[in-house]
Amino acid sequence: MKKLLPLFRQLDSIIAAILGFYFVQALTRHGGIGVSPDSIMYTSVARNLTQGNGFLQFDAKPLTMFPVAFPYFLHIIMLISGKDIIPIAPIVTGFLFAATILLAGFILEKAVPKYRIIKIIALLLIITNPALLEVFSMLWSETLFIFLITLFSAFQVLYLKNNTFTLLFISAIIAGIAAITRYAGITVIASGCFITFFAIPQNWKVKWIHTLLFGCISSSFLIINLLSNFLQSGYLTGKRLPADTSLLDNLQLYGSVITGWIGNDAPPLWLALLMGLLLIVASVIFLLLNVFSKNKSPNTIVSITAASFLSIYVLFILVSSTLSNYDDINNRLLSPVVIAFFTLLSIIAAKVLENKSAQFHLNIALFFILSLLALTGNLTSDKTSLQNNQDAGIGGYAEDYWKASEILHFLKTSTFADTSKIPIYSNDNAAIYYFTGKHAKTLPELTHERELDVFVQSPAIYVIWLNSGANPDLIEDKELKTIKNCKPVFTFADGIIYKCTPIQPPILENQDTLK
């Protein structure tokens, strides 16, 4: 009976993990796993690895924009299962979500051991969180990344308690793999170095030795990946454009996403900005208070682990999104801190409830009201997502729209792209590869002048224009016709295939207005 007691204590986590797995299957039941251009990159590299072609994308270019771990993980799954990754992806991401929830349950057990009701509410908020469900219903590297972060956090909790080299080594390996799953995984390395140096109760010599060992072991994975990228392409992480959002805008977006996690999907701009600022300041202060606390209880240890990663990751995202152009801060970008966020809220809630003041009953009532509002907001958002997915499939290439595409059906069934001796370009070459298995070059970005000049001066080419593949960073339909002499060859309800030739030099001079 004593051997079964730990299992019974984790029964709530096991039930939550089963529910999490079921939610992913429900969201992907209609059209399968969600697929985006990123997903197609990962899938094509995994297929090339399985075929012995190395880390090559579908366009035959080396993988540099994304690190190597997630495609390699998909490759391993394909080898074990003997199947392509797309049909079995919902099972894979479902198991990753379930495993993440089990690890989160372990961490919450250490964080609030006296308040099981807080742990259960936190688990409910985690398994219904729109950001996590969005990520785990898509074929994105965040699925593996979030699992690795949670696994790293669990081992960091054990390391802070025991301070053994074995736990340090395992944590460093996990952090290293996380860093080559997503480049933002450098925050996991930074968090581990911070915890190792400032949080372990050892003398300075041991702190330095452990920190250097952790840093060297964990960063070696990323250094090798970046060096390989540079040798193959001349870029460390692919071509990156300058940012087009300010720090204040990013703070507002951060606050807006977080308030959505606690029940308010559309806060006023001032409230979102204030929430973003308060959360950053509060997480840093909370981290420092626990780091310099003499009481290294399990509660304090979990606080340090969660607050360090939350603070470092959020600051990294805010700074990098202000300097480099990528997606606006959204649920996907912030999904890696969901578990750390609710872990810290659980710890704070437990501290409030421990204070047996005259307002004790009021605190309990307020805690349950806020929890109910957050859970209601989650369920409302999840219900909308489930309904949309059942009606038309998950957003991206899994939507029913693409299955009925006339232009893609033509490309798949005709010999046009197979026999053409003329180069083929497209505004959505990922969709063409995914649905037809055929290849096209991507149209150049307006900010890449050298590539744009080559494109303008090239002889006859075909351009496959997909109406739903518009990308504001690439040449648009109207702009294309001002820099090339384009005539429709095939016209469909959802796209056009042009044959484009160079235009006369006097007209070509006008291209400077596009740059």
UniProtKB/TrEMBL annotation:
Q: Name one GO cellular component term.
A: plasma membrane
Q: Which residues cross the membrane?
A: 63-82, 88-108, 120-138, 144-160, 167-200, 206-227, 269-289, 301-321, 333-353, 360-379
Chief place where the protein resides? membrane
Q: Where in the cell is it found?
A: Cell membrane
Please provide the record's keywords in A-Z order.
Cell membrane, Glycosyltransferase, Membrane, Transferase, Transmembrane, Transmembrane helix
Picking any one GO molecular function of the record gives: pentosyltransferase activity
Recorded hits in InterPro entries, A to Z, give: LipidA_mod_glycosyltrf_83 (IPR050297)
- Topology relative to the membrane: Multi-pass membrane protein
What is the official name of this protein in its record?
Dolichyl-phosphate-mannose-protein mannosyltransferase
Please name the source species: Hydrotalea sandarakina
